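Progress note, project year one: complex with adenosine-5'-diphosphate.
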Amino acid sequence: MKNKTDFPKVLIVASECSPLSKTGGLADVAGALPGAIAKELAEIRVFTPYHKTAREKFSDRVQHLGELSVPMGGENVPGRILKLELGENIYYLLENEKYFSKSIYLGDELEGEQYAFFCKASLAALEIIDFDPQILHLNDWHTGMIPRLISDNFAQSADRKLKILLTIHNLAFKGIYPHSFFEKVFGISEFEESLKMYSDCGAFLKSGILRADLVNAVSPSYSEEICTEGFGEGLSAELRSLGSRLRGVLNGIDYKLWNPENPEIHTPFNRESLHLKKENKSFLLSECSLSGSEKTPLLGIVGRLTNQKGYGLILDKADELMQLNIRLVVLGSGDPKLEEKFKAFKDRYPDKVFLKVGYDEELALKIYAGADIFLMPSAFEPCGLAQMISMRYGTLPLVRRVGGLKDSVKCYDEYGIDATGFAFDNMSSSELFDTLKTAIGLFYDSKTWKRLQENAMSEDFGLSKMGSEYLSIYRELLGIG
Ligand code: ADP
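Model obtained:
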């Protein structure tokens, strides 16, 4: 038996968790963290909604643990707790027809209700599950009300002192709802400062930030940026007030899943057989019905089509970019206006630009494996996983020097032939254009290009570094030296 005091027992609480459900990087990290720390060093399990996608994949493998009834604005809403074991990982799933049988995020005030229910149910579930955590590892606004609920909840009884770590994957999403919502759903009539955002609203995330024992952002640079007015989303003062209780932990990616040697891609390759990458490029070009050959620079985009990702900089210069004789494959969905603009771009260059609006993991992999350059000119980027994934496949990222992109891409203008990608500083389509011209110039210099690809593929963004940083935070929370 492990000595309880030097063996953190952690329950990750997250709105999405790969491979059960995913819309973005949060799911990747919540899914990867339990496996990133050796089982001998900590026990990490996950509490997450039983979303439709999880049901579709795993309904024949879940085990029923118990029922709960959650007071929500005058009615009691039922839920079921299920357990799922996948390999060495253990998940506790919250089932509810109204909130978790459609989209992962329902939008508008219903989304507030959805995750208010999740917050409340997570504490009630502690009485049902066969696991007694010492730490709740919360993620993003969806879990932000949990610390406040704990303060007047049985879960914080004398014999159970839960420690709270809150990870901010994206400060842009704060869970802001009117005061009336918090009154109705949480029964909060006296509106405390630690909840208030703007005059008559409250924010799940603010409450979480101010009540957690420790808070971390998902890259060192982002943890500094969010303390400034420009990136702090109205919470910079609160974040600054945390001082050393605010950390930055760079995310990692699962190199077993994201591996160019895996048979899932058209022609597997590695650093020593980089010449095979071109087979994946030809395959991607033909799958997307694009003209061009191995000699034509092929650019890829995989991401949420939102202003955060800076795609406007590409669209602003769309026609000039096409003068560079490039091909572009875009996969993503999100803001309808951006989707429309990309559609119009594609319609102007049907044999040079491919667009798929939607979520498609298979196509994403084909893009990572087949493209030459991966575009990620984000306005802000808490960490970003897509640029790490693309590097793994020798697809050189072209990014804006911000947040986790700054922490993970070694730019050609600074590092020369030791670089792993390209970067520019300002939100300027001209800067992006000039950087792309430099990248394309190097693309035609195949020897240097190969060197940069090898550099990118040699980087280590695997899970072990992220795992050991979280382990030391868990140990610190428990006062273990
Ligand atoms: P964010 O979390 O801001 O969405 P990240 O770069 O951290 O961005 O993580 C995005 C993750 O989601 C990556 O694994 C990426 O491959 C995946 N992804 C994003 N959009 C799509 C899509 N449309 N289809 C498939 N995978 C996608």
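The chain has a mean pLDDT of 95.
The two ends are 20 Å apart (CA to CA).
No further modelling is planned for this target in the current period.
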